[in-house]
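User: Okay, second chain of the day. Same drill as before: sequence in, structure tokens out.
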Amino acid sequence: MDVRVSAGGRRVIRRHPAAPPAVLWITRTLEEAGFETWAVGGAVRDALLGVDSVDWDFTTRARPEQVRRAFRRTVPIGIEHGTVGVLARDGTMYEVTTFRRDVETRGRHATVEFTDRLEEDLARRDFTINAVAWHPLRDELHDPFGGVEDLERGVLRTVGRPADRFAEDYLRVQRALRFAGRFELTVDPPTWTALCRATDQLGILSPERIREELIKVLALDPRPGGALSLYAASGVLAALLPELEPLIRRRTRAAPVDDWTYALLAGEALPERRPLLRLVALLQAAGARAAAQLLVRLRFSNAQADAVAALVAAGTGPPSPRARPAELRRWLARVGPQRLTDLARIWCAQERVERSLGVGVPVDAAGSWRALRHELRRRPALALVDLAVTGNDLIRSGLKPGPRFGRILDGLLDRVLEDPALNCRETLLELASILAGDAERPRPGS
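Assistant: Same drill. Structure tokens below.
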């Protein structure tokens, strides 16, 4: 977006950003009611960078009750903080917040009061690139802190004194690294120094907030390695994601990079729309135990934690496409065929990374995929429910029920995984009788 400087620190947009019609409608409605209104936040920043955004927010001189009177459909999503949700015709909700200024700040919480001045509202924001307001009706920018210039120079800088900005809200440490990585910005030295010093205070952040910021890095950034590298360089990785910190400078692969760099490259080779797969790529080298600790500590949902943990537990690469069919079946039984597609995506990412790094024998994702799919087409028994006999069949055959039934059925599945032809009722009952006799024999030394 081309801009030119006009008097009073205001800039006029030469090319109208791709704003939804509702943005003009909300601004016009409030302006005609006599209330100064501006678009603010990430959508304005993204428009300046030429990035389309659907997340449009507004700041206005109108008080919450005045906003609610101006629109037919509203949602009181944060009345006490001055925020009203305005519903457009298509059902999209836009947040409209009264001009505010901070009275007192306490880490993640602030006491605010309403004000009539846009400048005071922008002064309480975190970084200069997020403290730019745009007037949709006049195509006018208000940029009192030089956010546009910082974007042009590729610099991330706080509004005002960096130590104060981070002390007001320590989540801004993570946000700074996300913005710097996503938009390829250099953190200016005073901001970087204050950010690194603030890592000692990150323990007050809630697990949910930490998780949300991590997922935003993985879901919004085509190259999340930039932000995550800054996590490591600043000390944020050790403070917030200690399970991943040991990967730095550790090598467990044939690749000519450490496990941390490999994980970042593999994550970037996966699509943004699959942030949990990117998370798996980060966690695989850390191992199943470390992955479980992180997933529980950051309070991922049970469904998310189970899905990620299962993929991590599958291991750091595919089985060899030249493995024996029985080994492939055992792998499928251990991992679960339902996870094969997601794992294949990760293997493809690993193969691209290893080829780019010049690894002599890179992962053969396609070969492993074909070999495993070939076994699946044979419809092998991979779980106890796939066996041709059940516990009731064992009882009817004369075996007495008890704890040994589980061991007998596990033994039958093991035999069938080795030779699928054994999976018929008569054969399995004969094998069960043999296994039952083995189970009843005293063990040496007992």
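The chain has four domains: 3-150, 154-241, 271-380, 384-440.

User: Thanks, on to the next one.
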